């Protein structure tokens, strides 16, 4: 397999069937999976599976993992994924901090870096810092490596155009409106780049890790407030890829002015409570927005994340759950929607950004610039 500094070329992954097989290898982990099991789970013929696995092995993506006893005949050869056959860089460009991770095909973080960032600086300076971080993290593991990097996933505050990789009027930073971040960073790094909202990236990563989580909302409270939505088995971006601007729902008509220009936005009220140290009030406000979302979408669970939540996760989970439970009680609902903390501070955003690159290779989501009319990306069970 080509392990050059440019983006890795994996022709096998253009095949949908090969992606299904590769995903089953990924899920099986070190234990591996036999060709017979691959055929049974994919519905492919044994001959088709043999051809696909032969190509995967030839390209260094799969290897033998020993043998397993058979119910009859000779023991079955077990195959497993080769995690270091490819990597993705995941990056979270927050308003004041840059977090970047190098993630292998199995989703394990091989290296990570965090550095201060002024998102209000000139765009060229921000892109230069991001490109430097990509270079640094590729050589920042325990052992010096020159890994085959498939691309860079970048998570930033919204709103933005996911398909074109162009930022819109990021709340508090209107100077980014219309900036082609994807193309600018691709030119700097020489790698394919995917851009999405920070909340979408985190929701994607969580959905891939928590199989069977159903429809859920990931609410991210950090330097801002937003939501990532997984609905109907897919990451919901909306027709203009702008869904999830959760923080800018008005909950107080005569409330304080928000940085978006509106008044009484949940983000403004929540961050004001955080600034004065009133965690209980911040959680109550967040819970009010979460309860509205639950009522509108009838989702299965709410997950909370971001550095502000990470500073006191129990208080935020308790406060949000109390509001949702009360709303459910008033509506005569016996089983309120569960609330939990995602954990990890802002790191799930960077790791989810890496999955913007990796997940399509395993047939788990639509391609970076694909998606249906609603801008969604299907998560395949």
**What distance separates the N and C termini?**
29 Å
Question: DSSP strand (E) fraction?
Answer: 15-25%
Mean pLDDT: 87
Major beta-sheet overview: 6 strands, mixed
Oligomer: single chain
Order of strands, main sheet, comes to: 15-14-11-12-13-16
Number of strands: 16
What is the approximate shape?
globular
The structural class is alpha/beta
Number of helices: 11
Percent of residues in helices: 25-40%
The run of helices and strands is: HEHHEEEEEHEEEHEHEEEHHEHHEHE
Cα radius of gyration in angstroms: 22 Å
Poorly predicted residue ranges: 1-7, 366-381
Keywords:
381 residues; alpha/beta; five-stranded mixed sheet; 35% helix; globular; disordered C terminus
Fold topology:
Elements: H1 16-28, E1 33-34, H2 35-42, H3 46-58, E2 62-68, E3 76-81, E4 87-93, E5 97-104, E6 109-116, H4 123-138, E7 149-156, E8 160-161, E9 166-167, H5 181-189, E10 193-197, H6 198-209, E11 216-221, E12 225-231, E13 234-236, H7 266-275, H8 279-297, E14 301-305, H9 307-311, H10 313-330, E15 339-341, H11 347-358, E16 377-378
Parallel strand pairs: 4-7, 7-10, 11-14, 14-15
Antiparallel strand pairs: 1-3, 2-3, 4-5, 5-6, 8-9, 11-12, 12-13, 13-16
Helix pairs in contact: 1-3, 2-3, 4-5, 6-11, 7-8, 8-10
